[in-house]
Amino acid sequence: MKNVKVLKSVLVSNKERAAENRKFFDRIGAFVVNVIASPGAGKTSFIGSVVARLPKDYRVLVIEGDIRGQIDSERLAQLGIDVVQINTETACHLDAFMIAQVLPQINGPYDLILVENVGNLVCPAEFEIGEDHKLAVLSTTEGDDKPYKYPLLFHLAKVVVINKTDLLPHIDFDLKKARAGILQENPCALIYPVSSKTGDGYEAVIAHLVKELDASKKTHTS
Amino acid sequence: MHEYSVTKELVELCNREAKQNDIKDIQRVRITVGRFTGFSPEAIQFYFEYLCPGTRCENAKLIFSETPIKLLCRDCAQTSEIEQPVMVCPLCGGTNIEITSGREFYIESIEGE
Question: Which of A121, A203, A222, B16 is most buried (most C-beta within 10 Å)?
């Protein structure tokens, strides 16, 4: 009977694949944001709103992750956005291997790649895909206790967009409590309350993205 | 929820390691699962049994060890062990923390012939 010490992380292969994806993104000069949220929180609307407002000289690609169908891809393509679709068929999150499979379809260069992950507050946080950072979208209709309930995502997300602020007069969502909850998980999180419906709050989001994109360009060209 | 994908990776890693070490029939797999992963051992067991037939893991028994959640607080420089994943230092109340234990998911060893 052989007893072999392995001491290898099961998810290391995803980490390694994510690092390879990162090299590809660096080669084409892209800044990559992994957009994670519950179904219906407003990931697609957020992406559409960002691209509509970002200065036109920034080239944007969306990698769209869904279990099935092309609904979100078609919606974004109609806005003139370049999109690549991934259908996971069963998986509730995107992983580095799924991203790797669509990289050959990407005809760079792109300045910004927004990855719309499968709607889920749990699993996508666990799987790196080669992104620069994670961005969580939390909508006011989901409740202000979600940062407390879903610690990993809110610990890892550099940016948290709180969407559907236009509904605040009609629901019991305490913005102060949600902010405090987010900062408890990540004291450095950047929090942007927005309404994709009215456009409110997007100036700050765009200013942040432009800052990140310009800093990223400097790193790629130096 | 995502135990299926991680268990698939687990089975693939077991089979690769067994092949590399010339083990044709794995009897035991010792794995460590950190509390912060939220992975359910029952779900991993379920998917393991589903994914093993026809592979070197077919007869393998999974033996689980758990690692606790530990936080290093950068404010007071102390490490604490906590039960629930709440990102606040239980000693000083600081929130400038790093998880130093609890996110592990690795194969400790495999045993077989």
Answer: A121
Instruction: Tell me if B8 is assigned to some domain.
Output: yes
Describe the crossing of helices A43-53 and A202-221 by its angle, rounded to 10 degrees: 70
ipTM summary value: 0.85
Q: What is the pLDDT of residues B53-63, one digit of tens each?
A: 999 999 999 99
Instruction: Point out the residue among A2, A7, A123 whose CB comes nearest to the CB of B2.
Output: A123
User: Would the CB atoms of A91 and B86 count as touching at under 8 Å?
Assistant: no
- Residues A4, B109: C-beta atoms closer than 8 Å: yes
Is residue B90 domain-resident? no
pLDDT digits 0-9 by tens, B60-113: 999 999 999 999 999 999 999 998 877 889 999 988 888 899 989 999 999 999
User: Is position B76 within any domain?
Assistant: no
- Assess A4–B contact: CB distance below 8 Å, yes or no: yes
- Chain A positions touching B113 (Cβ under 8 A) are 1-2
Q: Which domain holds residue B106?
A: 3-68+102-112
Does B21 contact A4 at a Cβ distance shorter than 8 Å? Answer: yes
pTM score, two decimals?
0.78
In a domain? residue B60: yes
